[in-house]
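Notes from hallway chat w/ T.B., transcribed later so I don't forget. T.B. wanted the structure written out for a chain they're using in a teaching module, and asked if we could keep both sequence and structure tokens in one place. Agreed to drop them here.
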Amino acid sequence: MDEGTLYTIGDLARRTGLPVRTIRFYSDTGLLPPTDRSPANHRRYDLTAITRLELIRTLRELDLDLVTIRRVLAEDITVSQAAAVHASALDVQIQVLQVRRAVLRLVAKRDSSTKETELMHRIVQLSEAERHRLVHDFIESTFGAVDANPALVDLLRSTMPNLPGEPTAEQVEAWIELARLVQDSDFRAGIRRMAEHQAAERADGDRTGLHRELTDHVIERVTAAVTAGIRPSSAAAAGIVAELVARYAGTFGKTDSAGYRAELLARMEVANDPRVEQYWHLISTINGWPTPPSIAPVFDWLIRSLQHHGRP
């Protein structure tokens, strides 16, 4: 093509492969002004206009909007600046699409109803602040206005679900399950009973913290008993119960007795709700932390042993 030659819209269409109506649209909106007009007032374009059209097509194929393209053509911004802005916008879109994909896979996996699908979609659309508010509301409804163990309440408040920008399907599923769990009225009632039980203990003189050393010792001792095949109803279990009750009594300033063992049994039965462990497992999955090992079998064994050996 000659540099001095002018071309019709049809010529541009044949050269670029773009439809005539698209080129005419770009021209009508001012993105591709004609170089000249024929005596019959038909638009004509030179090689510079063709180069401009190629740039418009490239930017549109990269999905840049017409406003941004106009700014690039007017040299208000550079192509690299426009690309950076658009890349950031695409990052957000990709994150949204990844979450939607995870929800759709979960819907397919569960064969969810329309109502459940709508619920899951609403749950994953919550912002980080809204997710945290949902958990804080759960904590307030269960531990609020109760003098429960402050160390536990602080731990709950400081351990929030932080769904990453690019969550896995497992993390999305964990968040949906956590959102359901913290809104479950039965679970809330169970945790409230636990808080009230802790408040009664504190009123009775227990002002200590989370007793991690005691818990670690119980887990180690009972795990060894379970591994050794010691049944909760056996005489061997009676000795282990006596040892552990003595540790509990020493920690809380109590004396081993039938009454204290009954109190300890009641405390463990209230605390040994499997949904509590599920709560922490879901938080760990969402945050990408290692999943803590289950201690439910430990306290199941100890509860059954206390039921069989209720007297010193």
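Follow-up for T.B.: The mean pLDDT is 88. Might be a good example for the class.
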